[in-house]
Specification:
With 445 residues, this protein is mostly beta strands. It contains one helix and 35 strands.
Length: 445
C-alpha cells in the first residue's frame, strides 16, 4: 500500500471537510439560531440560505417572515425527504449519503451532491436555499469479532459468558480505509463492558471507550461478557468523534460453560495439633495455575482464612491459614473462581494431636507464709492444656502465670479471729489435680 499517497488524500479530504464545514457554520451563525416570529407582510427568508453539510448529521434551518404555515420541500427526496407543513420558526433534517454525486468535482475533494430546499408560506411567497451535501467520510463499516469461545462443531460465537472478545472495526469510504480517526464505543444494552487497557494501569471495565484507527484504518476494542450471562443479543454504538455520525452494532452473546481448569498446587492442607485435645493450626501456600484472573476466593468456614482476595494473576500464590487457639477444629474447603467462572478447590483439615505432657508437678509442695512475708511462690510443670489454681482459705489467693504459682495471704486481718493456720491450693489442668499446702499465721497485727 502507498501510505504516502493515502496520507496525502487524507490530508486533502480533511482540508475539504474543514473548509466546507466552516462555510456552513459561518452561514448558520453558530448552528442555526431560531428566527423571530413571522410578521404579516414581511418577506420570507431562511437562515442559512446556503452552505455545505455532512450526510448523517442533523442540521437546523430557521424561517423568518412570511405567513404561517410553511410548506417545506426539497428537490432531492432520496437525499433529504422533505414535504410537509409546519408553523414552527425552524425545521431540522438529516441528509442521506449521496448515492450519486455532482459531476466535474476534483478527485481529491469530498464527494458531494447539490440540494435545493424550498420554503413556501401560506400566501404563496417562496424562498430557496442552495446546499452542498458532502458524502460522509464513512459510507461503510467492516466489523468482525475474535473470541475465546469454544467453537464446538461450527464457528466460534462472537462473544460468550465470562469471556473476552476483540472487535475489529474498519470505517471505509468508497473502499478506502482512514487512519488516525477517533471512534467512540458506547454500550447500549447487554451483559458486557468494554475493557479500558493502559500499560500503566490495571485494565478497567467501562461503558464508554475511545480508540483511534491505526495507519491501516483498523481499530481494535476489547469487551468482556459478564460471568454466567444468558444467551442474548447485545448492542453498542460507534460514533465518529470528528463528524458526530453514529452507527449501532449488534452481536450475539452465547451462554457457555467455562472451558478452562484451575489447578491449585497443593490442593489440600492438613494441620495437626501437638497434643491431644489441641486443634491443629498453621499456614500454607498454594500456587494458582490456569484460568483467567482476577480470581475470587471463598472459604466454607470462618475459621479458615485464605487470601489475598482477589488474586490478581495466573501464577500468583495464595495463603491458607487456620489460626492458633481455635477450640473447634475446622475442616472445609477453599474455592477459587476465575473471571470466566472456572473453579478450583483446596481441602483443609484441622485435627487434634495425640501427644501428652507429663503429669502436673509442683515444687515445693509446701509454703510457709508469715505476716512479714505474706507471699510465696512455687514452680509448676506438666499438665495438658492451661492450668488454674483454687484455694481452700478465704484469706489466701493463688494465681498461675506461665509456670509460676504465686500464693498470698491477705493482710491486714478482718475483725474475725482466729483464721485457719493452713490452706490447700489445688492446681489443675482440667483432668488431674495436684495440691500444695500453705501454712499461714492465724492472725496478723
Amino acid at each position: 500500500m502507498n501510505f504516502a499517497a493515502l496520507r496525502s488524500v487524507q490530508s486533502q479530504l480533511s482540508i475539504a471537510f474543514i473548509a466546507s464545514a466552516a462555510v456552513f457554520l459561518v452561514s448558520c451563525g453558530g448552528g442555526g439560531a431560531s428566527g423571530s416570529p413571522a410578521t404579516s407582510g414581511s418577506p420570507i427568508s431562511i437562515t442559512p440560505q446556503a452552505g455545505s453539510l455532512y450526510a448523517g448529521v442533523p442540521y437546523t434551518i430557521s424561517i423568518v417572515g412570511g405567513r404561517r404555515p410553511y410548506l417545506i420541500t426539497s428537490n432531492e427526496q432520496t437525499l433529504v425527504a422533505l414535504g410537509y407543513s409546519t408553523s414552527s420558526s425552524s425545521f431540522e433534517f438529516v441528509a442521506n449519503n449521496p448515492g450519486v454525486v455532482d459531476v466535474g468535482q476534483d478527485p481529491d475533494q469530498v464527494p458531494s451532491r447539490s440540494l435545493i430546499i424550498t420554503v413556501t408560506d401560506s400566501g404563496g411567497a417562496a424562498v430557496t436555499g442552495n446546499y452542498n451535501v458532502l458524502q460522509n467520510f464513512f459510507t461503510g463499516y467492516g466489523v468482525s469479532y475474535q473470541s475465546t469461545c469454544a467453537s464446538g462443531t461450527g464457528n466460534a460465537p462472537q462473544a460468550c459468558s465470562g469471556l473476552d472478545s476483540v472487535i475489529r472495526f474498519s470505517p471505509t469510504s468508497q473502499g478506502t480505509r482512514y487512519g488516525n480517526r477517533v471512534l467512540q464505543f458506547d454500550k447500549i444494552r447487554g451483559d458486557f463492558q468494554f475493557v479500558q487497557e493502559d500499560p500503566a494501569l490495571v485494565p478497567q471495565l467501562v461503558n464508554q471507550l475511545r480508540a483511534t484507527t491505526d495507519q491501516t484504518g483498523l481499530v481494535l476494542a476489547r469487551l468482556r461478557v459478564t460471568v454466567g450471562a444468558p444467551t442474548q443479543i447485545a448492542t453498542y454504538r460507534i460514533t465518529d468523534v470528528r463528524t458526530g455520525v453514529t452507527t449501532d452494532q449488534t452481536f450475539l452473546i452465547v451462554q457457555q460453560d467455562p472451558t478452562t481448569t484451575i489447578n491449585l498446587i497443593p490442593n489440600s492442607f492438613t494441620f495437626t495439633g501437638g497434643l491431644a485435645g489441641t486443634c491443629g493450626s498453621g499456614s500454607g501456600q498454594s500456587i494458582v495455575l490456569g484460568g483467567v484472573g482476577p480470581y475470587q476466593v471463598f472459604t466454607s468456614s470462618p475459621l479458615i482464612i485464605a487470601g489475598p482476595n482477589p488474586i490478581a494473576r495466573n501464577g500468583d500464590l495464595m495463603s491458607v491459614t487456620v489460626p492458633v487457639g481455635v477450640t473447634t477444629c475446622p475442616s472445609g474447603t477453599v474455592t477459587v473462581i476465575d473471571a470466566q467462572g472456572a473453579r478450583g478447590t483446596i481441602t483443609v483439615t484441622s485435627q487434634p494431636g495425640t501427644g501428652t505432657l507429663p503429669p502436673i508437678a509442683v515444687s515445693p509442695t509446701t509454703l510457709t507464709l508469715t505476716c512479714a512475708a505474706p507471699t510465696g511462690s512455687a514452680a509448676v510443670i506438666g499438665g495438658n492444656g492451661s492450668l488454674s489454681a483454687v484455694t481452700s482459705h478465704p484469706r489466701v489467693q493463688a494465681t498461675i502465670s506461665g509456670n509460676v504459682l504465686t500464693v498470698t495471704r491477705l493482710v491486714p486481718d478482718l475483725p474475725v479471729t482466729p483464721y485457719p493456720t493452713t490452706a490447700t491450693v489445688a492446681i489443675t489442668d482440667g483432668a488431674t489435680i495436684v495440691n500444695l499446702t500453705a501454712t499461714v499465721p492465724a492472725s496478723c497485727p
